[in-house]
Every structure is written in structure tokens, then in C-alpha cells.
Fold this protein.
Amino acid sequence: KAGVTQTPRYLIKTRGQQVTLSCSPISGHRSVSWYQQTPGQGLQFLFEYFSETQRNKGNFPGRFSGRQFSNSRSEMNVSTLELGDSALYLCASTIRGGDLGNEQFFGPGTRLTVL
Amino acid sequence: GENVEQHPSTLSVQEGDSAVIKCTYSDSASNYFPWYKQELGKGPQLIIDIRSNVGEKKDQRIAVTLNKTAKHFSLHITETQPEDSAVYFCAAISYSSASKIIFGSGTRLSIRP
């Protein structure tokens, strides 16, 4: 069974631009969560989508948004990029949604660098 | 706000010895505590988890203990091997209102040959 895939793996943007990251969950998994990982702030939860609906949300500004498609693939978007948005963005999938207490399978992440 | 404190931030042990990583959480509504291992260039991987109705769980060389009264939980790795070298994260999940997951800051474990 294929794992969680994320594209692109690496991305370089400049301040003020916007970016869209993609995540394909494990086949059969309907929930996708997004995380930001930085050396300073560690791993932080962004949001979770299940059946095309955002079920849970972390404490990030509205510049961070996401969506989920009917095939469970998910995208996250960051608008008006800031230097502090440079991070590894991880996505994780699980079978059930709305309940983060299920085993989450992480993808390899997208490394975003904002110049 | 809620947080999870993880110690130590770095840990170096001799191959074959044991390693212990400790976490403390603040949200008393937390009831699920996973541990993740992250190797270089990869996403975190769940290695063991424990729920609040259990005090200890073991899986081969890895064990986790939970003290709900003290809001402490710990990861124990016995007979450490070189492949155990990685960054380990604890996390606490709360269902008080909506699901919320908070990670510890990570422990970089190095196994000395």
C-alpha cells in the first residue's frame, strides 16, 4: 500500500507570494491533517479535514487555509508569505476523521523556503 | 494555553543501554498520548501510544508509562541499537472541545557504538 505522498518536496518562494501544497493520503484514509514544523516552534497542528470539511483547527492566522477533495486529496494554501513561514509542512492521514486519537501516517513533508 | 514539555532535548547513550524521555502535559482533558520517531528527511512515525485508562504499555524494546495524576508520561527504550538514533516527539491529544494535538519539542537521541 502506498504511503502518504506530498508534492512538491521542496519549494522556494519570496515574501508576499502565495503557495499551494498538495497531499495524497493513503488509499482508504478519509482524514488529512496538516502540520508545520520549524526549529523554533517545533511541530504545530494547522488543521484537519474529513469528508471535505474542516473538522479541527490549530492557532494559525487566516493566511493558512486548506481544502479537501472528494477523493480525499488535500491542499493547503498560504497567502502573503512571510519569512517566518519557512518550514517543513507535513501532512498525515488517518482512516477516521474528527478524532486525532487515531494512528496518523505522515508524509515526508514539503520544505518551504521563503526569501 | 496548553503545552507539553519534553526532556531532555538531547540524549546520548551507549549502544545496549536504556534511554528514557519524559513529557509533562498541562491539559487535564488530554487522554491520548502518542510517541513519534522522526528520522532525517522523513515524516514522524508513530512508535507507540497510550490512552488515559492505561498506566503502561510495552512493545518489544519500547515501553510507555503514564501517570495521569502527575500529568507525566515517559518513553523507555531498552537495549538501544544504532537504528534508534532519531528525534523523538511526544504528543498529547485533548478532546475537551474539539480535537487538539500538542507536541513536545523533541529529543534528539544518539546511540554511541
Q: What stands out?
A: The longest strand of chain B covers residues 30-38.
